[in-house]
Amino acid sequence: MPTDLLSAVTDFMQKLVADLSLPGAVLVLVKDGQIGYARAFGGYTLDRRVPVASAAKWVSGAIFARLLEQGVLHLDDQVGDYLEAFSGEKAKLTLRQLLAHTSGLPTRESPCLRRGDISLQACAAEIAQMPLESRPGTAFAYGENSFQVAGAMAEVATGQPWAQLFETLIAQPIGMVSSDYEGMTRSPFAPTNPRIGSGLRTTAMDYAGFLTMLLNDGSFGGRQVLQPTTVKLIGEDHTFGARVRASPNLHSAAGYGLGCWREESDQNAHAVTLSSPGAFGCFPWLDRARGVAGILLTRDAYHRIAPRAHMLQALVAALM
To answer: 73 near 159, Cβ under 8 Å?
Structure first.
């Protein structure tokens, strides 16, 4: 990476940590399939693991994408075909609608997402009792309930707990050895209720490996983790122009993919810049136009970190 970029981002990060009195932060930048910058600031080290809230959605989206490749699940599969607790109109909710936040399920988080003493299917059954807030497919309303239901579908379809799906489909191929979802253990794979949309705990280096895989069209370490067409599918707009009813995003977006925001798209509606920021301040992004990806990892509040993270994105883009 250019020397002036490395110097500029170091100055930016030092000022960020000082100005916001952060406990620490890590920045990792990936260029041309290789880590070009990795540095910890404040009280953090490169191996610091923190919960990343909704930055988990991108990783979870990739797990679903692998199941799509395998033919185990399909985007138009209906919830009622997997989960008996869903009936009537709610039984017809599709996997695509769940992952794109257009299912109509409430944005108010079900209390079951905070329970570690029940199964994922039991939590989905509780969510099934909540009334729809909009007609499925007509409105985008960001929330956690839909991803939890999608996770329950994946467990039923595969006969495997979410922990095992994460481990075998994403963690092992990419080497995310320091990552897991809250409430679950790597071995044995006990029935748990992990937060599918926001429970990931990870390090910047682990997440950078995930971004490297996406930047390399699904390839990592000589292994094809996802097919290029699947990587493209993750970044496509799956909201189909649904009106925005509830969104935490402080910046405009060109729709929503499978677990990620489409920050910018080209004239052909192909995603150029993607991101998946979390409520705790973690901010991963991918810039296809410049072949660069990055993750800013810290533990703070999204509304404080997001404006600075976009400034950082612009800085990196200008100096590439």
So the answer is: no
Estimate to the nearest angstrom the gap between the alpha carbon of 169 and the chain centroid.
15
What's the mean per-residue pLDDT of the chain? 94
Whole-angstrom distance, CA of residue 320 vs CA of residue 1: 8
Three-class DSSP category at 167: helix
State the alpha helices, DSSP H only, in 236-301.
none
The upper half-sphere exposure of residue 53, i.e. CA atoms within 13 Å in the direction of its Cβ, equals: 16
- pLDDT value at residue 183: 56
d(CA 170, CA 52): 17
- Whole-model pTM: value is 0.95
d(CA 142, CA 127): 15
pLDDT category of residue 33 using cuts at 50, 70 and 90: confident
Write the CB contacts of 84 (distance below 8 Å, at least 6 apart in sequence): none
